[in-house]
Design brief:
Elements (H helix, E strand, L loop, with lengths): L9 H15 L1 E2 L2 H5 L8 H7 L1 E2 L1 H14 L7 E10 L6 E10 L8 E3 L7 E2 L6 E7 L4 E3 L2 E3 L5 H12 L5
Parallel strand pairs: 1-2
Antiparallel strand pairs: 3-4, 3-7, 4-5, 5-6, 7-8, 8-9
Length: 167
């Protein structure tokens, strides 16, 4: 997937990675795949199973885009509350997406496994951001802190480094 991307522009990379992963990986929850209530899989683990949940999709997209040359500062895994049941529903569930910031002050674009179109955050009224992170930091509102606080992220990045990923 990554080889043909070469020197293509960032939007082309976003579309190719989002489409590739969304089409090739089946959604399944962690209990069904890993017999655990919450497991963050590395891209290799997810592709080996052919299935993953929302954070596995987001992690695989993040690592793929980093490997294609997009800098970490432009990408954030974003934990959101996703409204389910339609626009008038008050029901929500935890969900994770990947946000792409073309510039530091720009509105992010959202890469999601549920809505396959890459849309600006303002067009995703169904999502309410809670916090975001990447390999450099954790953001909650306007507060930036150490990403080391996220145990599952630390665990998956350690496994990815052992697998040879550089990010």
């Amino acid at each position: 997937m990554l080889t043909p991307l070469g020197q293509t522009d960032e939007m082309s990379k976003l579309k190719a990675v989002n489409q590739f992963i969304n089409r090739r990986i089946r959604f399944a929850d962690d209990v069904a795949i890993w017999q655990q209530s919450d497991y963050w899989a590395s891209p290799l683990e997810m592709f080996a199973k052919g299935a993953g949940d929302c954070e596995d999709f987001a992690i695989a997209k993040y690592i793929s885009l980093r490997s294609s040359g997009i800098e970490a500062a432009k990408l954030r895994l974003t934990y959101v509350k996703a409204r389910i049941g339609g626009p008038d529903s008050n029901l929500s569930q935890a969900h994770m997406v990947l946000a792409y910031y073309p510039s530091p002050s720009a509105e992010p674009l959202v890469l999601d496994n549920l809505v396959t179109s890459i849309l600006p955050a303002s067009q995703r009224n169904d999502l309410t951001p809670v916090f975001s992170f990447n390999t450099e930091a954790l953001w909650a509102g306007n507060t930036r802190s150490s990403v080391d606080r996220l145990t599952r992220w630390r665990q998956v990045t350690e496994r990815m480094r052992k697998d040879g990923f550089v990010f």
